[in-house]
Amino acid sequence: xxxxxxxxxxxxxxxxxxxxxxxxxxxxxxxxxxxxxxxxxxxxxxxxxxxxxxxxxxxxxxxxxxxxxxxxxxxxxxxxxxxxxxxxxxxxxxxxxxxxxxxxxxxxxxxxxxxxxxxxxxxxxxxxxxxxxxxxxxxxxxxxxxxxxxxxxxxxxxxxxxxxxxxxxxxxxxxxxxxxxxxxxxxxxxxxx
Length: 193
Description:
Radius of gyration: 25 Å
Strand order of the largest sheet: 1-2-3-7-6-5-4
Distance between the termini: 85 Å
Structural class: alpha+beta
Largest sheet: 7 strands, antiparallel
Helix content: 25-40%
Number of strands: 7
CATH topology of one domain: Protein Transport Mog1p, Chain A
Number of helices: 4
Strand content: 25-35%
CATH architecture of one domain: 3-Layer(aba) Sandwich
């Protein structure tokens, strides 16, 4: 018969000794799954997904009822913009419509979203910047961009191109917003066929 201490005599050493095997098992499983890594340099950027933005927006131009623009952004280092994602959505309710969104990683490593829609400016702002308030406008070339901002969150710029509205949003700096806004304003709508 083995000897067990009464519960009243257990202390922190007993707790540590009982948890130690569990911690070792977790470390072994994490090591096997290669989910643990230790780096003295801190976190590093992962691999950016490969996304064919030209094909995606060309398909959207064929299937959606409003003009779609493909901005000409630099695609060679050091000024390279890397497309990394795309999606479709529908904004329901008053002023709603279909939405085409693509994402880019800027040369600085920040994410920028480009959304094109036949929804109204107000519907886009409500969907993608729900707590932001209008905070002025930016003029880029012949295009006026309405700015929606809130302290501590990413700003959103929305422009009305007549037959479509365009929203840009993200963690980029002022140069990133300027570059994307200028590229969209200069882009001609893609062919529908």
